[in-house]
Every structure is written in structure tokens, then in C-alpha cells.
Here is the input.
Amino acid sequence: MQHAEQHHQQQQQQHSVWYVCAHRGSDFPLQDVLRLRKTCKWSRALFGADQLRHLLSQWTTDDELSTQAGLRWTANGQQLLTFDEQQMGVGDLLAALCVTEMGGWSEMSEAIELAGQCGNCQLPVRLTSADLHQYPNKTAYLAAPRVLAQLKMVGPHIDFGNGVTFQLFQYGNTLRAIQDQAGFEIDINPPLPPNHPYQQHRQPHDPPVRSRIAHAPALGWQLTWGARDYASVSSFVKRIVLDHFSGTHQINSTYRMINRHVDNNRLQTIVTQSPHTSGGMHHDINPLRCRLHFASSHPDGHRPSLRRVDHLGVLIYTTESAVFGVGDAFKNRFPVTYRLARAVLGDVISAMFFGP
Here is the structure.
């Protein structure tokens, strides 16, 4: 019986139609698979669970196809996202192929990689049938901003400990994140002034977020007095992951006010560039080593005096272990952080910030 089943499977995989499907990858898209399954009875057996698993495996392991879908790999070759395909039936496999072939996973891949670096998820994140069922059908999946739809599936795999994950909860017409409690609502696409950088650089597939959710050392998950705006869904995820990491690990920091126009407006250029570039008000040079924060007020909330409106507060915090026996200068105690920050700030501002 087993031999007959294996022989049947081999015949399927030797069929000319299946050969084209299996070896042409993205040239044979899911819509064509669905059309063949619907209109040609003889072809349905060619696209059963085994064949769909093969197609899905191509999307997640083939360099060209995974790049096309935005499914990045880490620098050391670690896969970021895959599917629990062996536990999926035909319907689930078709859904997995749908969300993969739709692509656009680059922003969420960055968030997954950061969560993995911070110890909040095991890589690769393995999406299950239950994750795919966050949406009842393809139409509902496509109706939501793409990165938000992906977060609904990936969020439960970002684990903050004590049973808390980045799960999203539907509460009436509102959406809550992390905890299904009042105050943990997140506002997707909040109204922003026309000249606000998040409004000017708004991306429909990864829209801005407004939230009061924060994580504080020793206090855990808290709600800020006022809501914070984030450039996008993906930046919201990364900021929360980093805040949680900062609140649960040893952090060292240094702060100074610097004129934004020094060195040919270098700081002004950094903070006014698109928030979707690797910079802006929060510059994650190396998330687990060094992070720069630029603000027009001190981190404790005090506003600068009117005579210093041209100044920006530059805050650098790091997880690098301090070097002892080299004096008190920050750049000597944290040499790796100093080199990373200097690459962003430049020689002139670095000399002002760290000293000669």
C-alpha cells in the first residue's frame, strides 16, 4: 500500500504540468494553481498537499523567491520566517502561499530579526494554521494595511515573558496590543498635522500608529500620560521591543544638548529625513549595542529654554559592557559604542559630544 502511494506521488511529480509548476517558481503564481484546481478536474491531484508544500518551501528557501517576497535572512544565514507546513492541510497551504506570494514582508522581517536579537522569539518564526486564521479569507487579509495584517499573524510569536506576547486583540471597533485591557488600544492611521513628518512620509501599507503603551524598568507594562506617535506599524513594533529590552537589561547612557545647525546642519538633516530610513529621531545604529535618540527636550521631560530652541538633545544609550581602568570618559569606557555613534554624528559633533 505504501509502495503504491509512493509510486502515485512519483507519477504526479513527473507530470509535465507539475514539472513546470515546480521548476518555474514565481512564473507559475498561486492564481494559476487555483484556476487549474477549479476548472480542470484532472489537475486537482497534481496540486495536492504535497505539491503545495513543495511550492511553499520554494518561496521560503529559494534566495530569489524569498527576496522577492521580502523574506530576508540574517547576516549569518539564519532564516527569519517559515511555515509549519507539515501540519497544514490544502486550505492552510493555499493561505500560506497567498500571504507569501503577496510579498511585502521586508518591514516585518526587520522587526522579527530585532525581536530575535533581543531574545523575544526563536528564529525562524514558524507560522501555524492558527496564525493564518487571523483572517477569514484573502479579501479580509488584503483589506488591512499589509504590515498590520502580518503583525496579527507574527505578534503571538514575539514573547515578552510571563505569558505576554505582541498579540493584537479586537475590542469592538478598536484594536488593542500586548494586553487586552483598557488603555492598550492602538490607533492606526491617526490624524496628524499636514506638516508632520509622519504625515508627509505616510505609507499606506505600513501606516503611522498612536499608542500609550510603554515598558518601564521594574514597573513592567505601563500607559504613558499622553499618547505617542510612531512613524509606522513596524517602527511601533521595533520601539516596543527595544523599550522592553532596555527595561530588562543593563543600560548605560550619556546625554548632551547640541546645536542642530553645527557641522553644516548635520543634526537637522538627520532628524528631518524620512522616518522610514535608518535614521530620524531614533537612530538604531546597532540595536543591541548603540541607539541614538534626538529630541527637543531632555529625556526627563523638561523643555529647553527659549534661547536654546536651536538645540537638540542627543541621548546615546548602550548595552555594551564598560571597560574599567581607562578613566571616566564615556568614549573610553564604551569604545564600540563610541565608534558606532561617531559614524553617525561625524567628527565635529562627536568631539563636542564626547570631548576631544
